[in-house]
Amino acid sequence: MTSTRTGRWVRLDGTTNTRDLGGLPTTDGGRTVPGRILRSDNLQTLSGDDVRRLVDELGVRRVIDLRTTAEILLEGRGPLRAVPQVTHRHFTLLPERGHHTDVFAVEEDDPALGELPAGWTESLLPRQVAAHDEGEPPAVRSYLGYLGQRGDNVLAALRALASADEGAAVVHCAAGKDRTGVVCAFALAVAGVPHDEIVADYAMTADVIDALVAKLAASPTYAEDMITRDVGSHTPRAETMDRVLTLLEERHGGPLGWLDAHGFGPDEQAALRARLRD
Description:
Layout: E1 19-20, E2 37-40, H1 48-57, E3 60-65, H2 69-75, E4 87-90, H3 103-109, H4 138-149, H5 151-163, E5 168-172, H6 179-190, H7 195-203, H8 209-217, H9 223-228, H10 231-234, H11 238-252, H12 255-261, H13 266-276
Parallel strand pairs: 2-5, 3-4, 3-5
Antiparallel strand pairs: 1-2
């Protein structure tokens, strides 16, 4: 496995888990292209210098936000929302009550929706676990749940990445490891990145987990979860993504087979692949 751990990090004042999906080896001997798709934790605390770097230097033109409606409304507008050349798309990967449309349109139409109760997780619907997944570890069950309960939005996020033909795109959630990790795993698989390298990319978040937990603990939205659970419980483990990819292989012939079965066919896969490959 080729080590690309140091060169792929994008160091910003306001994030701790931003990195480029470029520079990864592919099964045909090539590499993914830097500067096309970034993955990140929450972008709410970007500094002015961060915004200038992302927009002017890295050419970010699209943000794909995987958080819930409640998370976005509670956290408020991030600095990139004020940049006219950057478009934002929202695709929650958790089942939730109420709106499943673009939350940014909802926010514009009814600002009162931002006045959510402290117990915002009540907006989330119970997660369902397929019978054949009940014996899997919790993180694996969660990731399979994204595919089973919000597969529509996994596909929508990938379509948003594929159609962002100008500049770079950033895909993120709160920590940039779970929801973001699943979407990025599919994007990398479409680009031809092998199983082990996808697992290694997912596990890189462990390198910054202490700073990441501290950052989220400073936000009232996430503080309780960060404080009541130890750092180890938040740390991504390679075996989690390895198991998810293995199950996709056994059940669908791999991530591409899952995409085919859910209507994301060869043409769309080719468009997404072109985002990460020359």
